Amino acid sequence: MDLNINKTTPVLSDPTTPVSKSRLGSSFPSGRFMMNSRKKIPKLDDVRSNGWLDAMISSSPPRKRLVKDFNIEIAPEDDFSQRAWMLKYPSAITSFAHIAAQAKNKKIAVFLDYDGTLSPIVDDPDRAIMSDAMRAAVKDVAKYFPTAIISGRSRDKVYQLVGLTELYYAGSHGMDIMTPVNPNGSPEDPNCIKTTDQQGEEVNLFQPAKEFIPVIEEVYNNLVEITKCIKGAKVENHKFCTSVHYRNVDEKDWPLVAQRVHDHLKQYPRLRITHGRKVLEVRPVIEWNKGKAVEFLLESLGLSNNDEFLPIFIGDDKTDEDAFKVLREGNRGFGILVSSVPKESNAFYSLRDPSEREDRLLHLLLDLFQCVKQRLGWIFPRPSFSPRMIKICKTQLRGIDIDIKIFLNNKGSDEIGEYIRMVIAQEKKWLLERVPPGREKEVRDRFDISGIV
Q1: What are the start and end residues of every segment in region (Disordered) (predicted)?
Q2: Dihedrals φ, ψ of 331, to 5°?
Q3: Residue 171 falls within a domain, yes or no?
Q4: Does position 256 have pLDDT exceeding 80, yes or no?
C-alpha cells in the first residue's frame, strides 16, 4: 500500500484563508475527541515562575558523549541510579524469555516512533535519516507483523523519510492516520473519510484535528518570525501541530525561546504546548495522542479486543508515554523505552545502548521470535531468510565486541540458540556484578531461559 500522498490528495489541501479571532476563541469544534472546555491553559507571565524553563531542562538531558554528529546520551557506567533503573526497566533483549512467554500463541503488532528510535537524534531534524540496514529490518518485520510508525512529524514527511509502502503511517502524534478500509466496516466518524492511495487502493484517512489546519499554519508563520533572531532556533510545520526546536540554541537563550513561544500562544486558547526532547510542540487542545492512535489503529486493523495479538510499542520520547500507558493499563501489550538515561516510564522494558537501538534491534528481535516460535507454539509461519542466509551480527555488549555467524536458514536454529545463550550469559554476569545486595535472585530469575532455547 503506497502511502505517499501527493498534492492531489482530496482531503489534504491546506486552507490558506486567515483565521478570525472568533475561530480562535471559545467555540470548540464538535466531536468526541475534544477536551472539556473548562480545562484552561495556565497563564504564562514568566516562563521561570511557571516552571516552563524547568520543564525544558528536565526534558533535555545533557549530552554525555558525542558520536560523530549524533547526540547519543550515555550515562556513566558507575552510576548507581542507572543500575536501579535497569532493574526496573530491563533490557528487552536480555529479557526475551519474558517477552516470549507473553507472546505464546499470539501474533505481534509492532508500533514504532521515528526520531530517536528508527533514526538517531541529530542537531538538524532534516538529517535524521534511518540507515539502510534499519530500513531493511523494518521491512522484514512488516512482512510478518502489522507494523505502523506513529511520529510527531507530518505523515507525508515521515513517509518520505522511511519510504516503505508495507507500513501504516500516523503523523502529527496520531492526528493524521492512513489505514486500509476495514472489510467488516467501522462506525461512521466525521473525522474519517475514504480516499485512494497512489496504487489506487481504497484507504481511510483519519484526521480528528483537521479544522485546526488554518490555525496551525498561522501560528507556524508567526513563530518563524518571532524566533528568527534566536540563533539555532528552528520551527517546523507538521500540518496538525508545529514544533520549535532549541537543540542548537545556546542554553542561556532557552528562556528567551520559551518566553516568546508562550507569550505568543496566549492568543490561542485552543492550542497547548507540550515538551519533547529539546523541542516545544504546539498542538490542538483535543483528547488525542499516540495512545489514542494505537487504539484507533488496532480497531481499524481488526485487532482491537483480539487476544491473539500482542501489541508492542517502541519509542524514546515523552509523547510515546501515552502509548505505553494504553498498553500497560489495557494489559494487552507492552512498551519498550529507548533511553540512555534513567527516567520514569509506563514502558515495561528498555533499550539502553546505542548498539541496541540500531538496525540489530529489530533484526535481533525478529530472529529471536523465529528461533523460539516452534517451541512456544506461535501461530504464524516461519519466514524465509534466503536473501540473508548468513548474518554477521557485531554486537557491542558492555564494551565487549562479539562477532557471531548466525545461520538464518532452516538449519540455523542451533546456532541462533547458542548466540542467545551467549548474549544473555554476558548480560547476566554484568548485572550480577553490579546488583545491590540481596537482589541477586531477582536477576537470576529474570535471566532464567531454561526450556526456551
Answers
A1: 1-23
A2: 50, 40
A3: yes
A4: yes
